[in-house]
Write a structure and sequence with these properties.
Strand order of the largest sheet: 4-3-5-12-6
Distance between the termini: 65 Å
Number of strands: 12
Radius of gyration: 30 Å
Strand content: 15-25%
Shape: elongated
Order of helices and strands: HHHEEHEHEHEHEEHEEHEHEEH
Helix content: 40-55%
Number of helices: 11
Number of domains: 2
Largest sheet: 5 strands, mixed
Length: 303
């Protein structure tokens, strides 16, 4: 079954004649007759009954025509939307773990784009979903971290999927807490200090492996645990429940205000934060510009 065959059926039904339908569509009558006959054979139904006055729809044909019209209407909508239209409006897409600096760089990129029409996408996702977005080219780059704990496993997955990891910077672990939390008065906290407070971590869904966690020291014993799915909820719970999360230490007062503070964590671990891409897919100009914004923001923060 083809779109053209459906158009023939509609034209014949409207004209009441194969010959008139052929004239309207500027094709030979024999071509229309043959095409409709092949369609009837393929569908296993009779669409048109014939008599000496012409053709008319059978009972099956009437039902078939209603579906054919729906298909053609949807096809025309698609053609109006995309055929002979300007290039796709999608400009750039990034999938990331939950980092404020990713949002900061994204904001700067959109501000400077300067076109009347565009579609940017920023997706804060689970670790496995980020990797899948890059594998399927749903996003141009993905932002995540490697550490001494997860590096071997994540690098193995990336290698199998023909991806590469490019480091942006190395961060020492910090904890994010409310400025009202007693830990906020400390210059440095220990893992032992944290046990009295709820630990907040990001949900990793069905790929809930320790190696996919967004937080360092994920295997460390914690008597109080809360799992969340988004950054806003996590920050609200940091404040409301005096909780903590282990993170990179890079905060954005522009986006998050001054209610959350970052305190160094006594730890030998580290976070190599960077981006992943497909090895055989060159980065376009706007993706490279986004990476420049990331690098600039991080360098300002780490000076």
């Amino acid at each position: 079954m083809t779109i053209q065959q459906l158009k023939y059926v509609i034209a014949i039904a409207e004209c009441g004649s194969i010959s008139m339908a052929a004239q309207r569509m500027f094709v030979a009558q024999s071509s229309v007759s043959k095409s409709v006959a092949e369609l009837e054979k393929e569908m296993g139904i009779t669409i048109f009954n014939r008599n000496n006055k012409g053709v008319y729809l059978s009972e099956d044909g009437t039902k078939f025509l209603s579906y054919a019209r729906q298909v053609i209407e949807q096809t025309e909508l698609l053609e109006r939307e995309f055929k002979s239209a300007p290039p796709p409006r999608r400009v750039f897409s990034v999938s990331s773990q939950h980092y404020a600096f990713v949002v900061n760089a994204f904001v700067e990129l959109v501000k400077e784009y300067g076109e009347d029409k565009y579609e940017f996408t920023l997706r804060e996702l689970k670790t496995a979903e980020i990797i899948e977005d890059i594998r399927t080219s749903r996003s141009d780059i993905g932002i995540l971290f490697l550490s001494g704990f997860n590096r071997e496993v994540i690098q193995h997955i990336l290698s199998n999927e023909e991806m590469e990891f490019v480091k942006l910077f190395t961060a020492k672990p910090h904890v994010f807490v409310s400025w009202k939390n007693p830990l906020a008065l400390k210059k440095k906290v220990t893992l032992e200090d944290l046990k009295a407070y709820p630990r907040l971590t990001y949900d990793q869904g069905i790929k809930n492996s320790f190696y996919f966690a967004e937080e360092l020291h994920i295997t460390e014993e914690s008597p109080k645990n809360i799992v969340v799915s988004d950054r806003a909820t996590l920050f609200n719970l940091l404040i409301g429940l005096n909780g903590y999360t282990i993170a990179s230490g890079v905060l954005s007062s522009d986006l998050n205000g001054d209610d959350i503070v970052s305190i160094p964590l006594a730890s030998d671990e580290y976070m190599d934060i960077g981006y992943i891409t497909l090895k055989d897919k060159p980065l376009n100009a706007i993706t490279n510009r986004y990476i420049e914004h990331l690098t600039q923001y991080i360098s300002n923060y780490t000076k």
